[in-house]
Specification:
Largest sheet: 7 strands, antiparallel
Number of strands: 9
Structural class: alpha+beta
Strand content: 35-45%
Radius of gyration: 19 Å
Oligomer: single chain
Shape: globular
CATH architecture of the largest domain: Beta Barrel
């Protein structure tokens, strides 16, 4: 594998997969400042409350929390919840704007990862789940877990 093909996960937004039906996934670069890179490397990132908005034909990540390290420089005033710009090609952004303007679609961050030494964000075009869909997802996950237990028990009792 070459350096560009490897991706290393930093943070994941598992809540987004529970709350939304993800129809499409996109990768975008994230504009960060120096202290944020150091905090990201240390794993001080939280994506749970994050979402993506479109302003003036550009994408911005809001609600992504990057907590500053204690050793942050004295001349820098770190702001953990600042709005961060996402980098994508104009054609992709135009396509996303058209889809987001459709009823019920939104953009949510799914994860942050390294790709070729740079921090990238995977964003998903998502539609919100209704409450009964969430219950169905929960039941399905519980059944799969129970099914796995039963199969393991069945296999171990045969030997």
């Amino acid at each position: 594998m070459s350096k560009e093909e490897t991706t290393k996960p930093i943070a994941e937004n598992r809540r987004a997969r529970f709350d939304y039906h993800i129809s499409e996934r996109y990768e975008a670069g994230v504009v960060l400042v120096g202290w944020e890179i150091k905090a990201v490397r240390a794993g001080h990132v939280q994506l749970t409350d994050g979402y993506v908005v479109v302003k003036g034909g550009e994408l911005f990540l809001i609600g992504c929390r990057i907590n500053a390290l204690r050793s942050a420089s004295t001349h820098v005033n770190p702001e953990a919840d600042r709005t961060r710009k996402l980098l994508m090609h104009k054609e992709e952004i135009k396509r996303l704007i058209g889809k987001v303007e459709q009823k019920g679609f939104t953009l949510v961050p799914l994860d942050l990862h390294y790709k070729g030494g740079r921090v990238k964000a995977e964003i998903g075009l998502a539609k919100g789940k209704a409450e009964h869909d969430k219950r169905d997802s929960e039941k399905k996950k519980d059944w799969e877990r129970e099914h796995g237990r039963l199969m393991r028990h069945k296999v171990s009792s045969k030997t």
